[in-house]
What does this fold into?
Amino acid sequence: MTFTTEKLSAQPSRISNMVADFRDDDSGATAIEYSLIVALIFLVIVAAVTNYTNSTSEMYDDISANLTS
It folds into this structure.
């Protein structure tokens, strides 16, 4: 039985190549950027709808108060 060190010496190089490839991979960055943009748009929409419902509620309260007096 012979023991070769070729495979053992190739492992650290292969692992370091895999780590370098993972570090240099930018494919997930675009998805994260788009999700942040969508989250920001969602927050703006929620704020606008909340503002609209508050002002509409105040308007109907004023109408109701004027009709009952």
